[in-house]
Sequence to fold (442 residues):
Amino acid sequence: MIEKEIRVAVIDDEASIRESLRHWCNWQTGFQCVGAWQTVPDALAAIPWIQPQVLLLDLHLADSESVESIPALKSKVPDMAVMMLTGEDDYYWVEQALQRGADGYLTKKNATDLLARAIRDVLLGGSPLTPDVSRKLIAAHINASPDSARLDQLSPRERMVIAKLAEGMVYKEIAEHFGISIETVRTHSRRIFKKLNVGTKTEAVLKYLKSIRPNGAPPGC
Amino acid sequence: MIEKEIRVAVIDDEASIRESLRHWCNWQTGFQCVGAWQTVPDALAAIPWIQPQVLLLDLHLADSESVESIPALKSKVPDMAVMMLTGEDDYYWVEQALQRGADGYLTKKNATDLLARAIRDVLLGGSPLTPDVSRKLIAAHINASPDSARLDQLSPRERMVIAKLAEGMVYKEIAEHFGISIETVRTHSRRIFKKLNVGTKTEAVLKYLKSIRPNGAPPGC
DNA sequence: ATACGGATCCCCCATTTGTGGGACTTTTGG
DNA sequence: CCAAAAGTCCCACAAATGGGGGATCCGTAT
Fold:
């Protein structure tokens, strides 16, 4: 039945926490820790071979590294669940993490007694959040369109570029339109993709249209 | 100054008209006829080498061949102007031709006295239309979304595919979603592009969204 | 002064896309 | 039943795209 144990991996730069999570997993029945890395790059290199089902990701890795890396991590193992672990419940990071594809978000203080259940929940498609997190999430969601805000992260030039993308123009046409190199357009697009957290022109355009007219004015306007 | 003459080409299956247009061009000062073909395939083979500036295209080639071929012709010589010539002013064909990239549309009866000016106009970026044509164009435009009709030219499967494209999915994802080969998805897409008269996924999605909700409901609905 | 974001451009590389064929089976409408 | 349309799959090739670097220049903020 070692085959049926839930394969859990850990990323935490703090050795003590990392190790205690590892030991906790292996001690719990039904879980096995298949990896525990200190840094995201280490994990990125390993998880494609390890194929964990759940990744416990510490929010406290140097500044925003952990949150930024969620898309990359999930792309390596698409149906791996990412569970954020954090000490504080700074809502800014909650939002950032969830927008980037985190599946759960637990504050560490009450993590240990909830973690086993949370891991099982997340594998069943749930989004386990500790109560303090979900309270803030709900509060923020009643009046905010999470994606619209992303647009003002775009620089003026990037806005001009995505506007043209949203007219169906290809890179070469946009370059000619603005009298710049196609390489510049590609650079702008790559940054737009990163900021909008998408991977293709079409996805970017869809998010752009949603953001620019959440109420739904015709594309021609 | 033979270099500064406007290079005109003709496609017309009726020999008498074709020849009279050729002679007319060469007789007019400032024009030279650089080609006169009976069929579209003949022209397609020749124009890349000839590089005409203006192509006079008879609408009366066997059924829809001439209109259908406008995109192909323009793709061979991207900045060549295509001027439609027709006896009648059946608005259906006017619309079809303009949608496919025709730059001008003249009815033959009053063509000869306007043709010289129309050719010069079209090269300056204008869209010369005989009055009867423009009247119908305007009438049709006040209350019609010309593109919406195009969607029901799509087969059921093609509609399913473009619906997924409009969710930002890439070919491989669509293939997996429907459990078919990526080649099949590509084939569907090619036919969708042809029917919607576009060249890229993004353009297709934009037309699709416009057609599916001309009033502009949010993409999420 | 110097660090930083924005804008510009360049190279490389793997993958995806767009386009042209062709071919086979299954529906479907006369 | 037969022809047309739809759906499926394949090959091949050029172009476009999506990332990954890195580099330069210019303002502005620190």
